[in-house]
Amino acid sequence: MILVTDANILITLFDVDGVSVLPQISPTEVLDVVLGECEHESQPGLREAVIDAGIDIISSDVAWAPSAKRMMNGKLSFPDALCLFYAKNQGRVLLSGDRPLRNRCEVEGVEYRGAIWVVQEVYERGLLPPEELCRWIKTWPLMERRLPKAELDRLKESLNC
Question: At how many degrees (to 10) do helices 149-159 and 130-142 cross?
């Protein structure tokens, strides 16, 4: 399994200094246009965190644009559509917390995962101590990350937060 991440997941993990766990779970890629979306004064150092983690930065190909545009349904940004196109055509698992993108993954038959899955994988593989994952779970609502409360509560319980 190779993961390709969208901006939402990168930013969510960057908020808790967790970008480095992705390649520990599985080889991870990010499209250059998606990374460009993340480069903002509110996330200084995100590009460096991606590079330091060993996440592969994939150069987008202009030839993908027509097919990606056909995947747009009014709710997807062009970078999201490119990410979806790439995941579908390269057989990648798409990491996203963006509901419209996840919905479109279902239509396109693309496997996807989110931040909850990342926490579960990190925990099950023993990549970080439960205390650190509890910090993530408690931090995300403060950062206005829209993660499902019931799932966060379930994780808190299983991690003894």
Answer: 160
Task: Name the domain count of the chain.
Answer: 1
Amino acid at 156: K
CATH of the domain at 10: 3.40.50.1010
Tell me phi and psi for residue 93, to 5 degrees: -95, 125
Domain interval for residue 33: 3-115
Q: Does a structural domain hold residue 122?
A: no
Asked whether residue 124 is domain-assigned, the answer is no
pTM of the prediction?
0.90
**Sheet of strand 56-58: strand arrangement:** 56-58, 28-31, 3-5, 93-95, 112-113
C-alpha distance from residue 135 to each of 13, 15, 130, 144 (Å): 12, 11, 9, 15
Angle at alpha carbon of residue 22, lines to 139 and 39, rounded to 5°: 70
pLDDT digits (tens, 9 = 90+) for 121-149: 999 999 999 999 999 998 988 877 778 88
- 121 is a domain residue: no
Contacts of 13 (CB under 8 A, 6+ apart): 19, 21, 22, 115, 118
Contact indicator for 84, 73 with CB cutoff of 8 Å: no
Query: Does 94 reside within a domain?
Result: yes
Structure letter (DSSP) for residue 92: P
